[in-house]
């Protein structure tokens, strides 16, 4: 939801029962409500609480850089 709707991101950490810490190529690192994201089958190898540089490195290693830059069309 919001301005980053339709963008791919990586879940870096679980903050509590309602919030996750996400980061990505076109997504700024921030906490989001788990109800506002939709999981995909893709995954990257990452340590819990990894910094932005480690996230970008994991995305590159998994060859998801191009996918992370695209946006999913959101039905209105």
Architecture overview:
The protein has 76 residues and is an alpha+beta fold. It has one domain: SH3 type barrels, CATH 2.30.30. The chain contains 2 helices and 3 strands, in the order βββαα. Strands 1-2-3 form a 3-stranded antiparallel beta sheet, with no helix packed on it. A hairpin with a 4-residue loop joins strand 1 and strand 2. The longest helix has 10 residues. It is globular, with a radius of gyration of 12 Å. The model has no long low-confidence stretch (mean pLDDT 88).
Question: Can you describe this structure in just a few lines?
Answer:
The protein has 76 residues and is an alpha+beta fold.
Q: How much helix is in the residues?
A: 10-25%
Sequence of strands across the biggest β-sheet: 1-2-3
How many beta-strand elements?
Answer: 3
Separate helix tally: 2
Q: How many domains is the backbone divided into?
A: 1
Largest sheet: 3 strands, antiparallel
Beta-strand fraction estimate? 15-25%
**Named CATH architecture:** Roll
**Structural class of the secondary structure composition?**
alpha+beta
> Are there runs of 5+ residues with pLDDT below 50, and where?
none
Rg estimate, integer Å: 12 Å
Topology order in helix (H) and strand (E) letters: EEEHH
Tell me the name of the CATH class.
Mainly Beta
The CATH topology comes to SH3 type barrels
Mean pLDDT: 88
Name the shape in a single word.
globular
Terminal Cα span: 12 Å
């Amino acid at each position: 939801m919001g301005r980053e709707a339709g963008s791919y991101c990586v879940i870096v950490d679980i903050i509590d029962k309602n919030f996750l810490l996400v980061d990505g190529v076109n997504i700024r690192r921030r906490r989001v409500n788990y109800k506002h994201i939709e999981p995909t089958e893709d995954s990257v190898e990452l340590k819990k609480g990894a910094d932005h540089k480690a996230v970008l490195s994991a995305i590159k290693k998994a060859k998801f850089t191009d996918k992370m830059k695209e946006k999913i069309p959101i039905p209105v």
